[in-house]
Design brief:
Helix content: 40-55%
CATH superfamily: Metal-dependent hydrolases
CATH topology: TIM Barrel
Structural class: alpha/beta
Distance between the termini: 21 Å
Strand content: 5-15%
Strand order of the largest sheet: 1-2-3-4-5
Largest sheet: 5 strands, parallel
Bound molecules: adenine, zinc ion
Number of domains: 1
Length: 323
Amino acid sequence: MSPLKALPKIELHLHIEGAAPVALVREMADARGIPTDDLIGPDGFYIWRGFTEFLAAYDRVAAMFATPDDHRRLAEAVLRDCAAHGVLYAELAISSDHVAEGDAGRWAEYLAAISEGAAAAEAATGIVARFIPTCIRGLGPERAVAAARLAVGAGHPRIVGLGLAGDERMHAPADFAPAYAIAREAGLGLTAHAGEFGGPESVAQALDALHLDRVDHGVRAIEDPRLVARLADRGVHLATCPGSNLALEVYEDWADHPIARLREAGVSVGVSTDDPPFFRTDMTREYAGLSSAFGWDEAEFRAIARASLDAAFCDDATRALIA
Ligand code: ADE
Ligand code: ZN
């Protein structure tokens, strides 16, 4: 195993369907006679161009997984892939909107299935997994409240937080305050995508309105030095995904990515993969890109994994077992 691949890693920003291995999706599609010529390219990666097409391709991949057994297999495969790149602990973004359409019974069945997959991956590789039910921004604040109620109502031991993903150009962060209040009241950790396509004001609004513990991406905070200082002072962790930002053309090159400048300014940053087979990445490639752009070596990567573990939403006993 290459030295970067073997380093211990923490993955806090990974969407379960966005991480679906292409071979598994092809198998699911073939079994149901669903054509994939316009979804999977001859190079073995998902086909999309630009963020809107990416979200549409993501939804098509998500729809390939229909039964509890499909979801069990997906969770196990995603976590085994993580473990193969040295990930010790992963928080998976999951979505009741993709699998349960508001139905508590289907949601409970789904959670049982992915927990079974997570337990199988843990038995095989040692990886520990927790789940973050994630609201979908484009579906609007009412659906987010329903998702938060399902997240809390499940009372599931692997559910540790609430997230918000999807198109940052739709709705204001404050629209989702009622959903976040439900999760906060129940003691869940709070994170949301912000500062990916939206600028620093999007990050600041999300922090203020949603009382976030962490931010997914958050990288465009770099455009406002006062916000950077606020993130550093408050210890708000950014679960960044540099390879995702490059694939979605938020930045042109590894060297342009603000992760190093954020870190130098004292912000707690982590490295994650977001939707690896969509963005032709994995944890080892992220580390390799950062190592060549910024000269980071083992000491930096160990510090980054430590910062991520400190920001994880699991309990301290779990954290102590992983460290
Ligand atoms: N859902 C999955 N990946 C995403 C991303 N990079 N931004 C927003 N929503 C997402
Ligand atoms: Zn994401």
